[in-house]
Amino acid sequence: MGKASRDKRDIYYRKAKEEGWRARSAFKLLQIDEEFNIFEGVKRAVDLCAAPGSWSQVLSRNLYLPAKLAPDSKDSDLPLIVAIDLQPMAPIEGVIQVQGDITNARTAEVVIRHFDGGKADLVVCDGAPDVTGLHDMDEFVQSQLILAGLTIVTHILKEGGKFIAKIFRGKDTSLLYCQLKLFFTEVTFAKPKSSRNSSIEAFVVCENYSPPEGFNEKDLHRLLEKIGSPSGADDLDCSSGWLEGPNKVYIPFLACGDLSGYDSDRSYPLPKAADGSTYRSLDPVQPPIAPPYKRALEMKKASMHGVQGLEKLSLDS
Ligand code: SAM
């Protein structure tokens, strides 16, 4: 699909370029904020799986820049934002970048060091593995990423803090809900308007972090396993212990964002330029600086130059 054609079919892709966001995902976080007011009172935030950086841009524009531009701004009071991804990303004002794996236990330690021992008020995670198209497999890998996010949360989130994470809706959704409800008093599944209806993607908004009394981070996996096994999730009755009554689990699900606003599944006509000339598509705000496909392209090119090209590539890397 060409750029102009995508501009027509994907209004949020076009709007992202017009408003200077690195990815259309920025609108998802903004629309979640419209509904849940997630940035209120936030002084320390962590963006897990942040590249190419549009959620970090949202954090910078909503937390860091207003504080920095305030007339009585003091450096010591500026919000701290730490962004983590496997991939490097171009700098963003007010965002400390860490290149790392969120499934690695040491990642939480790095964040804690940046916060000088303090804890975060907000953790967001838009992590996505490479999608295979095999629904169950994709959902499983995605849920592992959320559990990695939750592990980090138990180390770095302040009591009362919030955790927002991308999920793929599927048969394990009720299990995930039960697991998260153990740590947060409010857990809501949200579908922002900018996330296509045709996509199984949704976001879990967890509010008021309050781990069980006497909780030890080392016990997390034992606790989660106790709640249920993925295969039993469909029939899961979360009434044991913390949900009273005979009711099966009821998952709050909310559409969010201005519902009369742009529909991500619709095509919109392309506007003319201000001088009346025909529409010119904008370039992406920030192309990825080291995308995984770059090496594949290099290898393909090198193989076209035969064995010598491949030898040169392996010497260069
Ligand atoms: N929120 C980002 C934005 O607005 O620009 C988009 C995130 S993108 C959908 C998913 C990211 O998850 C990718 O950049 C990928 O590198 C990252 N990711 C996947 N698995 C990861 C892991 N184990 N640790 C850190 N990052 C990971």
Task: Give me the secondary-structure topology.
Layout: H1 3-9, H2 11-19, H3 26-36, E1 44-48, H4 54-69, E2 80-85, E3 95-99, H5 106-114, E4 120-125, H6 135-156, E5 157-168, H7 173-181, E6 184-192, E7 201-209, H8 220-227, E8 253-256, H9 292-304, H10 306-316
Helix pairs in contact: 1-2, 5-6, 9-10
The site of S-adenosylmethionine has 22 residues, from helix 4 and strand 2.
Protein name: Putative tRNA (cytidine(32)/guanosine(34)-2'-O)-methyltransferase
Binding site for S-adenosyl-L-methionine: 53, 55, 85, 101, 126
InterPro entries: RNA_methyltr_E_TRM7, RNA_methyltr_RlmE, RNA_MeTrfase_FtsJ_dom, rRNA-MeTfrase_E, SAM-dependent_MTases_sf
- How are strands sequenced across the largest beta sheet? 3-2-1-4-5-7-6-8
Uncertain spans: 230-236, 239-244
Mean of residue pLDDT? 86
Helix residue percentage? 25-40%
Per the principal axes of the C-alpha atoms, what is the gross shape? globular
Tell how many strands the DSSP assignment holds: 8
Structural class: alpha/beta
* Heteromolecules bound: S-adenosylmethionine
Major sheet details: 8 strands, mixed
